[in-house]
Design brief:
This protein is mainly α. The protein has 17 helices and no strands. Helix content is 75%, strand content 0%. The C terminus is likely disordered.
Length: 354
């Protein structure tokens, strides 16, 4: 018995001294707790307004990168077949990844709001696609980006607060920048432009509704029903289009479809909906409209367009609008902190007469 006790003491001494000899501390439970990140660190980081803004910028860049890819894909597949495959893929992924959220929120309001969001988002895509057949891509991108002006007023009409003059100034500067990016100085207003205005209105309604209901309802369940509605409407109209042959689905086209369904829809649209629950709708829509200059920038990199002075001025105006929109909350917060800080009482000096 005594030999067993001495053996245990020897093992304990060796296990505690060897890490010190090698320059490492023993991994005690206290050390593991000290080395670990605070509980909920990643949850708090992802739910911060700064992270939400970065998500919207990333979504805009992703959608901008898909602009010329969508044009190539529509030359191989009918429009609604393309949309049905894209949103069907995203709907399946949402139901698999967020199955617990969907099953836990099968109430009438969640399903209804999700289907309404899908109707507005799908309607914006459909109307924009039809309008593109009657107008230029530049005018379409410019008019679609006009939702940055509509969102503050729609949010006001839905009881989400009166728009501030900084929001309106940022929207006006952004709209001017989009004009320099998208318009080429020619062309009259036609029916395609009117349809694109309807597209911008539908997108604006969707942004505001997500910001209004996303905090009360489960955003992942809402997004799942949104994708289901978009897939159902696309599949319904795809019936009236010619069925693509199996030879149509070449490896490059399949890769594009996977990119549209997984990255541009499942990841980006879900991240956008989540971000709109963390930032004001006016500021969020301004960041989302960076899709237009991102698309032009990718087109310049791909050699489809030349970076002219007009484009440079447009990019500068849009960047200024983003600074205005993000500078106003910072200025308001600093001003509020200054107003709340109590005045320090004057302390008597050393030579103060008693």
């Amino acid at each position: 018995m005594r030999s067993d006790r001495w053996a245990r003491h020897l093992c304990h001494a060796v296990s505690s001294r060897v890490p010190a000899i090698l320059g490492r501390r023993p991994r005690t439970p206290c050390t593991r707790r000290t080395m670990a990140l605070p509980a909920g660190f990643f949850r708090r980081a992802v739910s911060s307004p700064t992270a939400a803004k970065l998500m919207l910028v990333a979504c805009a860049v992703i959608w901008g990168s898909s602009a010329f890819m969508m044009k190539d894909a529509t030359e191989s597949l009918p429009v609604f077949w393309l949309l049905a495959i894209r949103f069907g893929m995203a709907a399946v992924l949402m139901l698999v990844v967020f199955s617990k959220n969907v099953r836990a929120h099968l109430d009438r309001r969640t399903i209804g709001v999700g289907l309404l969001l899908g109707l507005w988002e799908w309607g914006g895509y459909a109307v924009q696609t039809v309008g593109l057949t009657m107008t230029t891509p530049g005018k379409s991108a410019f008019i679609t980006g006009s939702y940055v002006v509509m969102v503050p007023f729609i949010a006001w009409a839905m009881g989400m607060g009166r728009p501030h003059r900084w929001d309106l100034a940022a929207a006006a500067v952004c709209l001017a920048g989009l004009g320099f990016v998208g318009l080429d100085g020619g062309g009259l207003v036609n029916f395609g432009d009117v349809l694109t205005v309807v597209c911008a209105l539908l997108f604006a309604l969707q942004f505001v509704e997500v910001a209004r209901c996303g905090g009360e309802l489960d955003i992942w369940a809402l997004t799942a029903w949104q994708f289901i509605a978009m897939f159902g409407l696309s599949a319904l109209l795809a019936v009236f289009e010619p069925v693509p042959s199996p030879a149509t689905f070449t490896p490059p086209l399949v890769l594009q479809l996977v990119y549209f369904g997984v990255v541009c829809s499942f990841v980006s649209l879900a991240a956008m909906n989540y971000a709109f629950t963390r930032v004001p709708p006016a500021e969020g829509s301004l960041l989302a409209c960076l899709e237009s200059p991102a698309g032009v920038l990718f087109s310049v990199v791909a050699g489809h367009e030349i970076l002219s002075g007009r484009l440079t001025l447009g990019f500068a105006l849009i960047f200024t609008a983003v600074l205005i929109s993000n500078g106003w909350p910072w200025y308001r917060e600093r001003r509020a902190k200054g107003a709340e800080q109590p005045e320090q009482p004057e302390t008597p000096g050393r030579n103060h007469a008693s």
